[in-house]
Structure formats: structure tokens, C-alpha cells
User: What shape does this take?
Amino acid sequence: MTPEQLLQQDKNLVWHPYAAMGAGPVFPVVSAKGVRLTLADGRELIDGMASWWCAIHGYNHPRLNQAVEDQLADMAHVMFGGLTHEPAVRLARQLVELTPAPLEKVFFADSGSVAVEVAMKMAIQYWQSQGQSRQHFLTVRNGYHGDTFGAMSVCDPVTGMHSLFQDSLTQQFFAPAPATAFGQACTDEDIAQFRQLMENHHEDIAAVILEPIVQGAGGMRFYSADYLHRVRALCNEHDVLLILDEIATGFGRTGKLFACEHAAISPDILCLGKALTGGYMTLAATLTTEKVSAAIANHPPGVFMHGPTFMANPLACSLASASISLLLESPWQQNLTRLQEKLETGLAPCREHPGVREVRVLGAIGVVELKQAADMNRLQPAFVEQGVWVRPFGKLVYLMPPFIMNDDDLEALCAAVVQVVHQHT
Ligand code: PMP
Assistant: This one.
């Protein structure tokens, strides 16, 4: 198939994320290695997106490839009902060791959104076991937790999809988004409305659900660890479960292995995904405590009611184990410090531009927030012209490169952002 035929058929046949059928420029990619994507016309792009937070080790990594090949020789998949296998058990053990106590029970799901659904269902079933019908959730504005119905119901009501699906979504409790920036102490005022909602409705709230420290798709905002710390304390005070969605932040992205470590807290339920498999294939996990799992087991029907067909897919679990080992064997903390410094210096010139509202960096996340939404149809090809893959949304031009990116490539990536922001905004 020529690139032209591919594009024509793509336009006719396949949907792209958050897009109209057949809309927008798309670029055919033929391979990816290290931090580079190769387009069908031979151009190489430095990847600034890590395929939406995922490809932390870069693409086509020999260790990850080997993990897939080894597993493929044994079995690609078997059902998980009534069967088990070493890849699943090994990965569960690694995840329990890696995540903060007292998380010690693992449910494997097939995508981040499903992991969130699972977490919400766990919380509801937990309260049923306590003889309480708590069917609602408390969260903050500007959140994003996925595209399925439960997850959508706790996404930001304005930037999320509530207006489209209003009558189909459960009404949840929303506090304002945390206003205190990362690194600052949270004021009583900032958490006042959250506290009020908790005080007024805790008997109806199964769990609080939050993205810890970084609100991703809902605005790429970095908020105070102290805020998160206070949320944990309020959950304890009012006997409400805490679900943390670390699907985007997990596995080192914010400079800590998990973002909740910035606040030295742990949730009752934790969602992981994205970088879990190093970006090779879809897998997610929902972890919880003995308290929650035992309560569900000890109350009729005595089972947790979820079981995806591809639960604990052996290929994905083997990959995830290899990806975690690779991360832990690397000097990932020093590396994250280096990435943070390079993103800071590299994106700093954007601060001078009148169209830029703010530049912020945390770990391997660099954000240039514009004053006005950018025209994607102009910006996207402009980045490709500069030899980089950056996909802005709305007012946000942001980078989340693979952790293995070297200094030269990071400088080139940031320079391209500076250039495009200056020329096109
Ligand atoms: N939660 C967060 C914080 C996310 O960033 C995402 C994905 N963007 C999801 C949940 C949903 O994950 P998935 O796309 O794998 O369903």
C-alpha cells in the first residue's frame, strides 16, 4: 500500500481518537525505535509524547521485545477464569512490592478506563458489604479518568463530556479544582468546599477519586501535595475510601515512582495503566487493600463482579514485568531530575512570548499553557516540519518524552516547541 492509498483508506475506514470520521491531518508512521518515529515518507520525528505517557523506555526496546518473544513461545493468552499463570502472579507480586502499603490485592483490567470502573465498583461493593448503599463519588473539577460511563461521570463536567451524555451519567459531587500549586502549602480556603461536601454528604459517598498531584487531560495542572495529604485525612475522618488514579502519573513520570509519594499517603484503591507495559500493549491494574477485598468476599454474593475476557493477558503481564525491572534497574531518579532540568531550561524561552500564559515542569512533564486555544490543524504539521512529534490540545502544548531521551534530543524537542509557539501563536 502506498502512503497515499493508506491515507485514503484511513480516511474512509477508521476512526481516530476524539475525532470526526475522516477528519484532520494524520501522519502514516511505519516504525519506531528509541525516541524516534519514522514516517512513511522517511522523515524521523523525535517523540515528545511517549504515546500518551506510555513509552517510558522508548520504542522497540530489545529487553521488552525479548519479553514478548519469550512469552509468545509459551502462550499468548488463556482465559483467567479458573486458570492462572506465572506472568500474572509475578507481576502482581512486583506491583504489591512497588506500591505503598497497605495495597496488596491486584485486579488486572484491560485499559485505564476499565481500571477506573473496577475501582468504582469495588468501592460500591465495599459499602454494600458494610450494609450501606453508597453509590456516589466525590472528586474535583478539571479531572480526567477515562471515557467509559463511570469514569466519565467523574471527569470535569465542563471540559469532560457531561453535556453530551448528561442524562446517562450518574451525578457526582464536584469540589473546585485545587488552586494551590505544587510545592506550596494548601490553604484552608482552597480545600474548604471539598471539606464541606465531605461533611454534608459522606454517608452517600463511596469514595473520593482523584488524580494525585497532576491533573492530566483535564488541564495539565500540578497541585499541592499538601492538598492531597489533607484529602487523605478527610477521608479517614469521615470514613470514605480514597481512589487514586495513577494511570498517567505512575512509574516515575512525576519524579517519584508514584505521585502519591509526594504527599506520603496511600490510597485504599489505586489505578495503574499506560506505562505499566512500557507502552507496548494495553494493560491496567486496580490494587486494593485486604480490608476492601475481604469485605467484598465476606458479603453476598461474595464475589467481585467484574471479569474481562483478556484479564491478565500473559503477553501484557510479561511485558509489564520486564518494563518494571528495566525501570528499577536504571538510575531512574537521577534521570528524572535530568529530564526535569532540561525541560525547565529548554522551555523557559516560551515564558517571554506574549501568547503564553504559563510554563510549568514537573518530573518528565513540560507544559506550555497558551492564552488562547491553538489551531491544531496549523500546529500539528508545524511540529512535524520541525522534526518532532508533539500533539497539543486546546491551550496546552505539552511534552512527556520517553525517559531514555538524551540531552541533545531533549534540547531539539524543546527548541522546536519554542519555535512553533513563537511562529504560530
Ligand atoms: N485516567 C487517567 C488519569 C488517564 O490519563 C487516562 C488516559 N488518558 C485514563 C484514566 C484512561 O485510560 P485508557 O485510555 O487506557 O482507558
